[in-house]
Amino acid sequence: MLILLQAVLSFDNLLYISLESKKAPEEAQKKVRKNGILIAIVLRIVLLFKLVSIIDFFQEPFSFLTGYIKNIV
Fold first, then answer.
1. DSSP secondary structure letters along 5-60
2. What pLDDT is stored for residue 9 in this prediction?
3. Can you tell me the distance from the alpha carbon of 28 to that of 25, in angstroms, rounded to the nearest whole number?
4. Which UniProt keywords apply (predicted)?
């Protein structure tokens, strides 16, 4: 599911960057597209690593519950 969401968001980013780059002067459009795609890729990677670290952070405090629940059941 996450992979599908990433693919859809990537396609959405490409469309948006393409449309917005057309507003730039003709000689700057290629540079705007290149920089926009580069920034989108870097932000996607940074946010993905941050999400993983947040998941790891919140997983640790609740890990003691799994042993407790197994003992009850």
1. HHHHHHHHHHHHHHHHHTTS-GGGHHHHHHHHHHHHHHHHHHHHHHHHHHHHHHHH
2. 82
3. 5
4. Membrane, Transmembrane, Transmembrane helix
Tell me the pTM: 0.67
Q: How far apart are CA 38 and CA 50, in angstroms?
A: 18
Q: With a cut of 50, which residues of the chain have pLDDT below it? A: none
Q: Scan for tokens 């459009």, then name that residue.
A: 29
Identity at 33, one-letter amino acid code: R
The pLDDT of residue 32: 94
User: Which pLDDT score, from 0 to 100, does residue 56 have?
Assistant: 81
